[in-house]
Amino acid sequence: MTRNVLGYDSRSADKFVVRMPEGMREKVDEAAAEQFFSMNTFIIQAIAEKLDRDNRAQRLIDALVESTKRSAAA
């Protein structure tokens, strides 16, 4: 079984074709190379970070809404 640095078996992983705007592939390739990552690893990490930011932002919004409700009820 082939495991990559993200801990999954790349041979059995889901595959998805990504269409990038002109010039983006080169930018991703350069950024990945600067960090000694493959383009795939770089893209997967970028997606994971985006999902995590969105999740944290939603939790913050939920906490603010709840705090506002509690303040209004007091």
TrEMBL record:
This is Putative Arc repressor family protein. InterPro entries: Arc_DNA-bd_dom, Arc_rbn_hlx_hlx, Ribbon_hlx_hlx. One of its GO terms (biological process) is regulation of DNA-templated transcription. Pfam families: Arc. One of its GO terms (molecular function) is DNA binding. Residues 10-56 form the Arc-like DNA binding domain.
